Amino acid sequence: MKKYLVGGAVRDTLLGYPVKERDWVVVGETPESMIAQGFRPVGKDFPVFLHPETHEEYALARTERKTAPGYKGFNVHATPDVTLEQDLQRRDLTINAMAMTESGEIIDPYGGQKDLQQRVFRHVSPAFVEDPVRILRVARFAARYAHLGFTLAAETRDLMQQMVDAGEVDHLVAERVWAELIKALMEKTPSAFFYTLRDCGALKVIFPEIDCLFGIPQPAKYHPEIDTGVHVMMVIDQAAQLSGKAEVRFAALVHDLGKALTDPAKWPSHHGHETLGLPALKTLCQRLKAPNSFKVLAMVVMQYHGYCHRVFELKASTLVDLLQKLGAFKQNSALDDYLVTCEADIRGRAGFERRDYPQVQYLKQAAEAAANVDISSVMASDVQGKQIAEAIRQLRITAVKRFIRSWRTKSE
Q: Containing H/E element for 99?
């Protein structure tokens, strides 16, 4: 069997990155011969098999021919006469079109090693335009490797622009867009994903709610970067440093959607943007078929992130009501995720990147004080129904008042 390690495993080996999964291409075999050797078929659209021991994927070398718009309109040809070079030619970028023999020899017919050294994303062939998912993949690679100095080749960006103009991205289905979005948000520099899409015109088609934030001014006093789109990009990069949760990074991405809906006559002020953006967020989540856990946290952060920034000004009653809305007194509390997203929002501003955010500890300690009240007297009393909840609320308000006095005393 002629087998070659291909794709990301080769690329990351050459970059010195840890290889998470290994994919193989097999040349000169048939589905029947693979099955006879103990491989288990798993591919639906083309011949892919799992190794009987390692369970790594082995795909027969194949070529593809475009037959319809979108990313599923392909005719796959996988026969023993398809060469390794032909298989590599159908891949998206040169840095992903290299193969490695079992002895470690690199097979690089399209200049992937040179582009890897020069930190360039470059398409392999004009066939790049046939698959709109490649636009998302290139943008995701930008998010993964931006910190290494990778840039997009001008001719590849032009091809991506042509694909957008031809309406290819209109055929992307929600599930695929969501999958690529979450992968991008979990990379080291998620902002590079959105900047790459914006440069080729795809952002306004795929994520119009994000695209329209660029050019919206904010008060320079609080936002030295001025531009809302730039701010949001800074926030998601901060969120990537502060949290490994995809829900947090998504909430950071969408927290300011309402600023695009502010009456331009009121710029650069955005009073009320926290609630103004809620319908847009619901629409976005519905279109992308976002899981409920993402939607719930994003809506909480959008609606209440201003409260966190102003928390030292809040009355005890308002603070208790905020904690209640955050589910701070339940097992599945959103408090920690809410707080880390709000911290990313503050640090995602020009010159604010290392700013302390004592609001986090303040709210955590307030929540602890409120949660630890003794409610036995309420439960033993004659109050019923809603009166019980209000009586417990009053106990919590009293506890939070004591906490606020203590905090202020320590701060003086």
A: strand 99-100
Helix (H) or strand (E) holding 98: none
User: 3-class SS at 195?
Assistant: helix
Question: What CA–CA distance (Å, rounded) separates 193 from 199?
Answer: 10
For the entire predicted model, the pTM comes to 0.92
Provide the H-helix boundaries in 243-385.
Answer: 246-254, 273-276, 278-288, 292-309, 316-325, 335-347, 359-371, 376-379
Cβ count near 26 (within 10 Å)? 25
Domain ranges of the chain: 1-118, 132-206
Six-digit token string for 370: 């409120």
pLDDT beyond 80 at 66: no
Query: Are 163 and 169 spatial neighbours (Cβ–Cβ below 8 Å)?
Result: yes
pLDDT at position 67 is 59
Vertex 366 angle, CA 364 and 372, to 5°:
100
Q: What is the pLDDT of residues 320-354, one digit of tens each?
A: 999 999 999 998 899 999 999 999 999 999 999 99
Sheet containing strand 48-50, strands side by side: 40-41, 48-50, 57-60, 23-27, 2-6, 99-100, 106-107
* Region 14-41 average pLDDT: 93
How many angstroms separate the CA atoms of 31 and 180, rounded? 30
CATH number of 1-118: 3.30.460.10
Pairing of strands 120-121, 40-41: unpaired
Write the single-letter amino acid at 334: A
Tens digits of per-residue pLDDT, 133-146?
999 999 999 999 99
CA distances for 283 relative to 208, 232, 246, 255, 288, angstroms: 11, 19, 19, 14, 9
Q: CA-CA-CA-CA torsion for 273, 279, 280, 281, nearest 10 degrees?
A: 90
Helix, strand counts (H, E) of the chain: 20, 11
Please give the class, per CATH, of domain 132-206.
mainly alpha
Helices (H), 118-244: 133-145, 154-165, 174-185, 191-199, 203-206, 208-211, 228-242
